[in-house]
Amino acid sequence: MIEPLWEVFVRSRRGLSHTHVGSLHAPDATMALRNARDVYTRRQEGVSIWVVRAADITASSPDEKDEFFDPAGDKVYRHPTFYEVPEGVEHL
Amino acid sequence: MDFQATIDADGRIEPRDAMPDGYRKTLIRQIAQHAHSEIIGMQPEGNWISRAPSLRRKAILMAKVQDEAGHGLYLYAAAETLGVDRADLLDMLHSGRQKYSSIFNYPTLTWADIGAIGWLVDGAAIVNQVPLCRCSYGPYARAMVRVCKEESFHQRQGFEILYTLCNGTPGQKAMAQDALNRWWWPSLMMFGPPDTASTHSEQSMAWGIKRHSNDELRQRFVDMTVPQADVLGLRVPDDGLVHQDGRYRFTEPDYTELYDVVKGNGPCNQQRLSHRVKAHEDGAWVREAAAAYAAKKEARAA
Fold it and tell me: Mind listing the domains of chain B with CATH numbers?
């Protein structure tokens, strides 16, 4: 019997996003949440926890990361620093 | 970037990156051994939970032992990102194919030993672990950041136990001195064999897994700990200890004892392992019941 692996995400305080903190094994989602509370928030590290079955996550492949992310490389005009601001113009 | 370029640039390797087989194997061995040490380390301290001298001490000790379980879990999770299963790692611990730190094969005879473990054993662990927060393998480094944050509570609570004993009756102070006498040498051995005899060190340094040599870390520990012993008013049991040019020269521990304990001949090796196996077997029905309940709920939802 192998318990499924769950990835754990914790919101450290209100106003911040959930961040991946690690993983754990549990038979179901309820137990995964309880275990995550004990393993990852013993010192009030969070106000909210998400658990997601690791098997349900689709990830981009590290082997294809160049092809995958390259298209953004030549679109420098997406950054504000691409534009020249004439002398004396403020609040732009 | 390929593996070596990432290492050379002091970057981090992440779970699905290509990596040499040896790098993966070394990390699995080291992280698993580290995780095993955390959970076996619960035993010598758990031994005193029911006999802690006050409710305050008992609550603190329980929190600390729970932290050790948590550290084990962070580390098993980090090891699993390398493609191994926790259940298999536990099997290897139980069958003796993987090791844990030999320091936990010494007994905790008195309450002062709980102080000595926090102060010396956790102190040595911090010296070993702080550089691991910059280890080249991302998940291990991140787990170590969490562990190190929690260890400083462990070390301080140990020091506080000894400080209280050292300011108590002569008998209590003698108990603290006796604990230091017994834990000093095994604590020095926690840094592993001397550099001249260390088998894995060079490659681990090249891979950015290890950042400092065993002897460097041992020296750092001695320099940090001796002045703390002075504050306690305890004597470090080393006649060769000399303060010189801002550092302490000290006597090396007897490494034949280290090798002997690693081989399984320490005072508590058998007890630690058989207790772990028994706890695992006694918990089997809980795991089975939880799995059966999860399966039943899933069947109903379908």
Answer: 3-301 (1.20.1260.10)
